[in-house]
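1st attempt posting a full record on here, be nice pls
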Amino acid sequence: MRRVAPGLLRAASGMAVALCLVLSSNLTGAEAKTIKFAWTSTDSPTDPYGIVGAEFKKNLEELTNSELEVQLFPNRQLGDEKEILEGIRFGTIEAGVVTNAVVANVHKPLQVNDMPFLYPSAEVAHRILDGELGQELLAGLEDKGIIGLRFCEGGFRSMINNVRPVTQPSDVEGVKYRVMQNPVYIGMFSSLGGNAVPMAWGEVFPAVQQGALDGLEIPIMIIDATKYYEVTKYLSLTNHTYSAILALMSKRIFDGLTPEQQSAVREAAVRTCDTQRARVAETVEATIKGLGEKGMEVNQVEDVAPFREKVKPVYEQFREEIGSDRLDSFLAAVN
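the predicted structure (as tokens):
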């Protein structure tokens, strides 16, 4: 039998070790998963949606030691909110943050969050949405192919336009407002006498700029992040709707994760939204002041009671879709 030289044995052994290291490295790379995280607005550090994206990436990669790598897609790179939501449902987009009103189009009970003048403060909204009522809403998304991870902070929505300040319901009459493609918002502005124009987000800025729309309703932070102060004159702090924004993941993708990864995703969402809510709260007053300095005419709405009276029919219009008991439970919880 031929003897193999010791030098050849050492070389062969070294090659085997190197091959194992390469294979191990390749397997580790194969196990790592990329999570595409999408939203429609900017990645500005003051944008509520952008904060969610940046914080979710940081938290999830820390919790999984980058076993789950998050790639961020702001500015409608993967489509408008309807398209992002559809991508999440079918698993072509792993995760994202989407406005409650858009998600409510596929899960009607979520319409309760968009009821006009429902939440008197962000603190009340947080208490309810983090509690049993809110968690029931999120759990109902699973049948739609969506894992509802957490309600984050969009902030209260206000009215901006180029016609007149809004101090009473009659000031809304005849004004063309862009509203989200959601029947609750259409019903709300119609009940106030406005001309509600449903429109995808990406089309709104040029429509206002060119005068095809008089204005829109929008969270304060988004006015600043997307520079709507450049194309609208009046900002009226109506606070007509608390805008919840939802951190979501595709159920198809979530079900393919290990139990440890699933726990990390849920924990990352909790940490993300807690941080994001705090940052939005810290900056909203300064943002309102800044919008005034940038040329907007800002006014508070001193008495919302006439507005509440005008929008009462909206509650009954959507009672059946929300669920009568659920709507009554939310109404009782906010009082």
